[in-house]
């Protein structure tokens, strides 16, 4: 894994600080591909447009995965009575924030391409000069380097920044308020993940379903980071209302349902790795009644999902429906909810794996 960014490394410029391993990039590949196929059409874009933004989106998602791997390592060690210092993530956090701040979206090819909309500086400055002059800093400072190499605060590359800093000290370049908010959701999720996994690693320790539901809502923060980065690359301001705001509200629910479905598929792997998984938490809270309780949760989320979809603009709604069926690949079963065999005794399950056998538990059931 790359070493956490240091002030000395930052002096070379935030675009030169390594933040992701090959393994993290490999994990990011499927997410980026799905994001491009699913979210680009909402803005009238296609896979070909990805070539004008691939380096930014891949770097962002791979860095998020690198931090996620570090956080999962902390959570996994909780089962062995270990743990770790979450502060070890701060070097990567600082490098990600500094890198985002250093990129001038108006210097990149996607600027202004969405549906022919007139772009504005992501921080709210005036539209770009028709003659092609570089946009000015919102505070009235000198124009950014057209190549996007210089951050809004030239000293920022050498100064460690964190999500705990004030918004006005962070926002700049691609680090818009929307991107910043999504990243803060990510740090909140990782904290919940560590806490919940530490509890799950202790037999009988209770979990609060309110925390489980919050973690489930925050888990896909990386898609929201990429979404806000894409909007910044296109020069679109944060939606204060209207069709784009309705789309973002709907997608947050859709992402939560997709993650919940993935939790059912990955259930046994997540038990083995001591990873966060909603079904694991429901088994801890409800025992053998977890399948029925989860079915009620799924029904509630699907009702809210349908209501939110009805509020999405017609063209965007059709694009969502088309992509959903495309992702299913014509397999109707891919859209069904199937709860796997419940693992009521994780310790026995793990002993079975170590011995090369299986583990007993309650039977699976349909969630809806």
What can you tell me about this protein's structure?
This protein is mostly helical. It has a two-stranded antiparallel sheet. The two termini are 41 Å apart. It folds into two domains: 10-128 and 146-238; 244-368. It contains 15 helices and two strands. The chain is 54% helix and 1% strand. Residues 1-11, 116-158 and 362-366 have low confidence and may be disordered.
Summarize the structure.
By secondary structure, the chain is an all-alpha fold. The chain has 15 helices and two strands.
Q: What's the number of domains?
A: 2
Number of helices: 15
Rg calc: 22 Å
Indicate the low-confidence ranges by residue numbers.
Answer: 1-11, 116-158, 362-366
**End-to-end C-alpha gap:** 41 Å
| Biggest sheet overview | 2 strands, antiparallel
Overall SS class? mainly alpha
Secondary-structure map with pairings?
Elements: H1 7-10, H2 22-39, H3 47-50, H4 54-77, H5 90-102, H6 167-170, H7 177-200, H8 209-218, H9 221-234, H10 242-265, H11 267-273, H12 278-286, H13 290-310, H14 314-328, E1 338-339, H15 346-354, E2 365-366
Antiparallel strand pairs: 1-2
Helix pairs in contact: 2-4, 4-5, 4-7, 4-9, 7-8, 7-9, 8-12, 10-13, 12-13
Top keywords for this entry?
368 residues, mainly alpha, 2 domains, two-stranded antiparallel ribbon, disordered N terminus, disordered C terminus
